[in-house]
Design goal:
This protein is α+β, with helices and mostly antiparallel strands. The chain has a domain at 18-88: Nuclear Transport Factor 2, Chain: A (Roll), CATH 3.10.450.360. The chain has two helices and five strands, in the order αβαββββ. It is globular and about 50 Å long.
Length: 106
């Protein structure tokens, strides 16, 4: 069991060393990133952004929201759009279903 725990700690340490994330202020994002979001994601607002450095490659992950929808977009170091990483939508609860049968009057 100890060997498994040690191996897990070493693997997690290697992952942390390989990818470093740093929060970025929305105001500090490159103009090309904010322009792309304004053009292609009308009505969305930037919630937060992070700078990711992995194997000497810099990317920016930008979380945008509109209502209950949240998406994460990935940009390269020059501000070029790379990919959409995911979309999440808020869950709305349905009204509880009635367990009683409707009665009819005769």
């Amino acid at each position: 069991m100890k060997k498994l725990l040690i191996a897990l700690v070493l693997v997690m340490g290697a992952i942390v060393v390989n990818a470093q994330t740093t929060p970025v202020k929305v105001a500090d994002l490159q103009k090309s990133i904010t322009d792309n979001i304004a053009k292609d994601y009308v009505g969305f607002t930037i919630k937060d952004a992070t700078k990711v450095v992995e194997k000497n490659v810099v990317t920016y992950n930008v979380v945008i929201t509109k209502g209950t929808t949240q998406e994460t977009l990935c940009y390269d170091s020059t501000g070029k759009f790379l990919k959409k990483m995911g979309a999440k939508a808020g869950v709305t609860k349905e009204a509880p279903k009635s367990t009683t049968k409707p009665t009819t009057k005769k």
